[in-house]
Automatic annotation (TrEMBL):
Protein name in UniProt: Carboxylic ester hydrolase
SUPFAM superfamilies, per database record: alpha/beta-Hydrolases (SSF53474)
Pfam families for this protein: Tannase (PF07519)
Family listed: Belongs to the tannase family.
PANTHER family: CARBOXYLIC ESTER HYDROLASE (PTHR33938:SF16), FERULOYL ESTERASE B-RELATED (PTHR33938)
Keyword Disulfide bond appears in the UniProt entry: yes
Domain of life: Eukaryota
Keywords annotated in UniProt: Calcium, Disulfide bond, Hydrolase, Metal-binding, Serine esterase, Signal
Classification via InterPro entries: AB_hydrolase_fold (IPR029058), Tannase/feruloyl_esterase (IPR011118)
Range of residues in the leader sequence: 1-17
Organism: Zasmidium cellare
EC numbers: 3.1.1.-
Length: 576
């Protein structure tokens, strides 16, 4: 009897050495710590925690649904010579027999430096270990604005550089070495980055500085050109204030819907998706909407939307004047262009108004509500260095003050947050790839902001080539796709038949490891009646157009392309 038990235990022990539970132990994780991976970093042996999870269902727009098993390892490190310094990192690791020599670095969104469990989960189905960091902010769910000031007017610069680029790099370098130790592997570890919005900016922060660390970066709707991007959230509200008209929420919604309806067919296909916002901007007369009736039931409001009473009315001349001004992008009091606008067909998130029960009037939302609050907090806390998340008033703010704040941010954060360094020679020379995408109906970060950065890279890196020749050279390693109908890092209920590029990691792996270049980007319809359908997205600078046979063609259209480029003549220094 005893004899048999020993045999059974031996067998069980042997099997578990390569099973998830067998390696997902604190002892094995501690033995795998890479103490020499990063100069000046001291890993705390006693901080290691490891827990295995099985049969976990994951679902997100960024990857196809899957069921995964993984090991979550968390530990802490500090920087030599710095006091009160403790950075937490988490790595998710697939079972040893599922590991395919890949590592995925991930970032955050908004003022968060990580995305909790959502981004790392997408790595596991591809046999990749994945990492995230808390930036040293205190714990994984502490947002950067909670630690940015040490007191009024005293910046915690360490937090700025950690958020700016340093923390993700440390997490990645340590994570790569840890992963190799964990699987006792010395095979090539392909290393990727994937993130959207602030996570997209963090991706470019790595691309611009750390070519040797990565093989490919998947970057969505990046919040780069940070000093412009954040203040830009104030622009729409200040248009309303300047024109002294605050459109009711239902009127704004109606204008967006009517624009989508009117411009849908310009791309050759009536599917409720404005795939050619450029043709919409060139051909659609917003004034044609004046007088259109609207009706909305009362809404209670949520995290994303403000409460509103029931509304009936017709689109007004003033409402169209406001929207027309918003869609020009910020111009200063002398009519010079300061920044790029959103595209026609995007909803007007920054312009959202709030109904004031006491006055019976619509107004710019108060108390830090609404999308304009990102701009308000940026100015109050990060530029004026006050420990508060809202400006005390917007009443004296003008187009010129928004411009001045954009320039001030450029002065203060050009080496940390701006993230527009346009010379990517090191990345290119290392043979690394960039897959950059942006929803064409993004209402939070203008699609044209991404187009502008890529154009800066093209001009800086290929100054002596013709447009077509430089585009061809750039597209060898840096591809950009504007995703028709997509909203900010997500699918879009206003254009449900649009496809979203959900398989980007698979596409990038194919490009880096097998040399399969994504001449069009694989995408999937995630909403509506065609849910599950596959579509291919044209690579910039080509634009989609559906021919008479109902097939999409990727066409070159100079007039449309020109509509995406802006001469920011209000700013005297180059804005990449
Ligand atoms: C995995 O989870 C699903 C649904 O949560 C459940 O039906 C199934 O029995 C589980 N399988 C195992 C092996 O635990
Ligand atoms: C991620 O965390 C959320 C909130 O705690 C939880 O509901 C979800 O099940 C978790 N997902 C995974 C894949 O662990
Ligand atoms: C991983 O485990 C740590 C420690 O138990 C926990 O704090 C953290 O929330 C987990 N992270 C994820 C993304 O699952
Ligand atoms: C910061 O300034 C505000 C007023 O501007 C004041 O209420 C607050 O106490 C100050 N906080 C600190 C930490 O000085
Ligand atoms: C900033 O204000 C918050 C309350 O709004 C407070 O909890 C925090 O301690 C303050 N931080 C500093 C550095 O003054
Ligand atoms: C990797 O490890 C194997 C044995 O485990 C060894 O034969 C080989 O030389 C190693 N390769 C490198 C590049 O270190
Ligand atoms: C606009 O379209 C959305 C999505 O189809 C719909 O939910 C909403 O009711 C519409 N609003 C108006 C004012 O037409
Ligand atoms: C304003 O009135 C609406 C009903 O019209 C109500 O739902 C809402 O709670 C009120 N809001 C405030 C801030 O009082
Ligand atoms: C708006 O009009 C609809 C009918 O079109 C009506 O049922 C509703 O009561 C009206 N609501 C308001 C607030 O006038
Ligand atoms: C607006 O007024 C406040 C209070 O008077 C002042 O502190 C602030 O500097 C003004 N802002 C601008 C942009 O003029
Ligand atoms: C650039 O290439 C496009 C096709 O991709 C072509 O239509 C266009 O004429 C070319 N422009 C020049 C200046 O050669
Ligand atoms: C492309 O997307 C479809 C779903 O739309 C998916 O089944 C397929 O695996 C993807 N192909 C690649 C190369 O990612
Ligand atoms: Ca269409």
């Amino acid at each position: 009897m005893l004899f048999y038990m020993v045999i059974l235990n031996l067998a069980a022990g042997f099997a578990s050495a390569s099973s998830l539970a067998g390696v997902c132990t604190t002892a094995h994780a501690r033995a795998s710590l890479p103490h020499d991976a990063y100069q000046g970093i001291l890993i705390d042996d006693s901080s290691v925690q490891a827990n295995s999870f099985s049969n976990i269902s994951i679902s997100d727009v960024m990857y196809p649904d899957a069921v995964i098993d993984y090991c979550n390892v968390t530990f802490a490190y500090s920087h030599e010579g710095r006091v009160d310094d403790r950075v937490l990192v988490t790595y998710w690791l697939p079972a040893p027999d599922k590991f395919e020599n890949r590592f995925l670095a991930t970032g955050g969104g908004g003022l968060a430096i990580n995305s909790g469990n959502t981004s790392v989960a997408g790595a596991i189905p591809y046999g990749a270990a994945a990492g995230l960091t808390d930036g040293g902010f205190g714990s994984f769910d502490v947002q950067w604005d909670e630690v940015f000031l040490l007191a009024n007017n005293t910046v915690n610069w360490q937090s700025v550089y950690m958020m700016g680029y340093q923390a993700i790099h440390e997490m990645t370098v340590i994570g790569k070495a840890f992963t190799q130790n964990f699987y006792n592997s010395n095979s090539t570890l392909y290393t990727y980055y994937q993130g959207c919005s602030e996570g997209g900016r963090e991706g470019f922060s790595q691309v611009q500085r750390f070519a040797e660390t990565y093989d490919g970066a998947i970057i969505g709707a990046p919040a780069l050109r940070y000093s412009f991007q954040q203040v830009n959230h104030l622009h729409s509200g200040i248009v309303e204030q300047t024109l002294d008209y605050y459109p009711p929420s239902c009127e704004l919604d109606k204008i967006a819907n009517a624009t989508i309806k009117a411009c849908d067919g310009l791309d050759g296909k009536r599917d409720g998706v404005v795939s050619r916002t450029d043709l919409c901007a060139l051909q659609f007369d917003l004034k044609s909407i004046i007088g259109a009736p609207y009706s909305c039931p009362a809404t209670v409001g949520s995290m994303m939307t403000l409460p509103a009473p029931a509304q009936n009315g017709t689109v007004t001349e003033k409402g169209i004047a406001v929207v027309t001004e918003i869609l020009k992008g910020l111009q200063d009091s002398q009519g010079r262009q300061v920044y790029v606008p959103y595209q026609f067909g995007a909803t007007f998130a920054d312009a959202a108004t709030e109904f004031n029960n006491a006055t019976g009037k619509w107004q710019i939302p108060e108390n830090g509500l609404g999308a304009q609050s990102y701009g308000s907090e940026w100015v109050e806390r990060y530029l004026l260095l006050q420990n508060s998340s809202t400006l005390p008033t917007l009443k004296n703010v003008t187009y010129d003050s928004i411009k001045e704040w954009m320039v001030l941010g450029l002065h203060m954060y050009s080496d940390s947050l701006q993230t527009t360094w346009p010379d990517l020679s090191s990345w290119q020379e290392a043979g690394n790839k960039i897959l950059h995408y942006h929803g064409e109906s993004d209402n939070s970060i203008p699609t044209a902001a991404s187009v502008r950065y890529r154009e800066s890279v093209r001009k800086i890196m290929y100054p002596h080539l013709s447009y077509n020749a430089s585009e061809a050279a750039l597209s060898e390693w840096y591809k950009f796709y504007s995703i028709p109908g997509a909203a900010h890092c997500s699918d879009n209920p206003y254009q449900p038949n649009a496809a979203f590029p959900q398989t980007n990691l698979k596409v990038m792996i194919g490009w880096v490891e097998k040399g399969v270049a994504p001449d069009t980007l694989n995408a999937t319809v995630l909403l509506g009646e065609n849910k599950g359908a596959n579509q291919q997205i044209c690579a910039w600078p080509l634009r989609p157009f559906w021919n008479d046979n109902g097939a999409v063609e990727c066409v070159y259209d100079q007039k449309s392309l020109n509509s995406w480029f802006y001469d920011l003549d209000a700013i005297k220094v180059p804005v990449f």
